[in-house]
Design a protein that fits this description.
- The chain is elongated.
- Helix 1 crosses helix 3 and helix 4 crosses helix 5.
- 61% of the residues lie in helices and 14% in strands.
- The longest helix has 28 residues.
- The chain starts with a helix and ends with a helix.
- It has 199 residues and is α+β, with helices and mostly antiparallel strands.
- Strands 2-3-1-4-5 form a five-stranded antiparallel beta sheet.
């Protein structure tokens, strides 16, 4: 590969690292061309699966500000640059590796943090963003009155506490500032009272 081609390849990989929401490194030795195509189809739009050169990828990872990535770049390497839901991509890779033992997940990176294969496997067991959002929407729709009651209880409790404190202070002979509305009305009445006294 000529130097110009290497420079271009490094620049493209650097952009991939910077623009992707995450990246998963795999070893693909033993997978056929048709199996690699099947893997790409299973990932869909969630990730872009590319066979990469380790030396160029090391440089690109450093250029993208990713530390600790070099140790993972040994042997034949392919990277899934994740574009969509990280959990969905992790699920697809885990499912494919169950049926195709030749695909080995070596690790990954998410928001600049290096992830081990076990951490990626745990991530694959999480629910996807879409499922979580649907559950959250359902919970909010079904329990708005409960949420309102939860907010109302502490507010009324606070109002009672303030009233009790006001009564205690008044009994102790302390003068308390008027409520905001009362202050506003007192201020608006003040000029009229002054005018009457000067007349």
């Amino acid at each position: 590969m000529a130097n110009a081609e290497k420079t271009k390849a490094v620049a493209e990989l650097t952009d991939q690292f910077k623009s992707a929401s995450g990246a998963v490194l795999t070893e693909y030795r033993g997978l056929s061309v048709s199996q690699l195509q099947e893997l790409r189809r299973s990932l869909g739009e969630a990730a872009d699966f590319q066979v990469v050169k380790n030396t160029l990828t090391k440089i690109a990872a450093e250029n993208a500000g990713i530390d600790g990535f070099s140790e993972l770049l040994v042997g034949p390497t392919a990277i899934a640059f994740i574009r969509g839901d990280v959990v969905e991509a992790a699920k697809s890779l885990k499912t494919f590796s169950k049926d195709n033992a030749a695909l080995v997940v070596k690790g990954g990176v998410l928001d600049g943090a290096i992830l081990s294969p076990s951490e990626l496997a745990r991530m694959a067991d999480l629910e996807s963003r879409e499922v979580l959002l649907a559950k959250l929407a359902g919970a909010m729709k079904g329990s708005m009155s409960q949420a309102a009651a939860l907010f109302a209880a502490p507010l009324s409790e606070a109002a009672r506490a303030v009233d009790a404190l006001r009564v205690k202070r008044e009994e102790a002979g302390e003068t308390l500032p008027a409520a905001p509305e009362a202050q506003d009305s007192a201020e608006s009445d003040a000029p009229a009272a002054d005018a009457e006294s000067t007349e």
